[in-house]
Automatic annotation (TrEMBL):
Gene designation per UniProt: ORF-C
Keywords: DNA recombination, Signal
Protein name from the UniProt record: Recombinase
Annotated source species: Volvox carteri f. nagariensis
Entry GO MF terms: DNA binding
Lineage: superkingdom: Eukaryota
Length: 225
């Protein structure tokens, strides 16, 4: 994540800055939620719900972060419609709150991403109206209104890890395994791990919490945006 922030600060074009923030947000979201790359890439505005219960969330844009202060004490409630586990239903609700580390805070990054997506100099198609994370067109000049595919996300994550010199075959799925194992190490019960991961099977959860299992190197190469 530090590598992505450094790239963002050094970039000079609005498209590059948005692509880096999009990728960073995906990584932060997967880490904080244990969501699969496939479900992360199809997150929509309608999946954000009013934390007081009821209808859709009406609080966008989020307040911009103070570079020198703590982020406001607020939370985002997400109930994604149609995850791999929930199919045609909404997934169990999850709350995202400010992270004490600014570089890891999904809410801070989302506030900045929203501002840049709606800025006057933003690339065509940048304004967020449905999908939160979107790919660019074939010419890499504009964003298109469709989900950010798990394969494209995997290639982008691999590219950033290679550039940072820490790539050893990780995929977006590795965020899921890693955060489930970190949650277990923090003392979560088995029931809490099942709820956090949306994994019903005890055998499947056991595979995720087994740190000795190797990480598979994905087939294919070449970054996509």
């Amino acid at each position: 994540m530090d590598h992505l922030w450094s790239g963002f600060q050094a970039s000079t074009t609005s498209l590059t800055r948005l692509l880096l923030l999009r990728d960073l947000l995906c990584c932060q979201f997967m880490w904080h939620t244990s969501y699969r790359g496939h479900d992360t890439g199809k997150l929509r505005l309608r999946d954000f719900r009013d934390p007081r219960g009821g209808g859709p969330f009406r609080g966008f844009p989020l307040p911009l972060p103070d570079p020198f202060g703590a982020y406001p004490s607020l939370s985002l409630r997400i109930e994604q419609l149609g995850t791999k586990t929930s199919k045609g239903r909404r997934a169990p609700p999850l709350e995202l709150r400010p992270d004490p580390s600014p570089r890891h805070c999904f809410l801070r990054t989302l506030a900045l991403y929203w501002q840049l997506c709606h800025a006057p100099d933003a690339p065509p198609g940048s304004a967020i109206s449905d999908y939160l994370f979107r790919p660019t067109d074939r010419g890499h000049q504009r964003f298109v209104e469709r989900p950010f595919s798990s394969s494209a996300l995997a290639m982008r994550v691999g590219k950033h890890l290679e550039e940072a010199g820490v790539y050893v075959g990780q995929t977006p799925h590795g965020f899921r395994r890693g955060t489930i194992q970190a949650t277990q190490a923090a003392g979560a019960s088995r029931a809490e791990l099942h709820a956090f991961s949306q994994i019903r099977s005890a055998q499947v959860l056991e595979r995720y919490t087994d740190a000795s299992r190797p990480t598979r190197v994905p087939r294919g190469s070449g970054p996509r945006s």
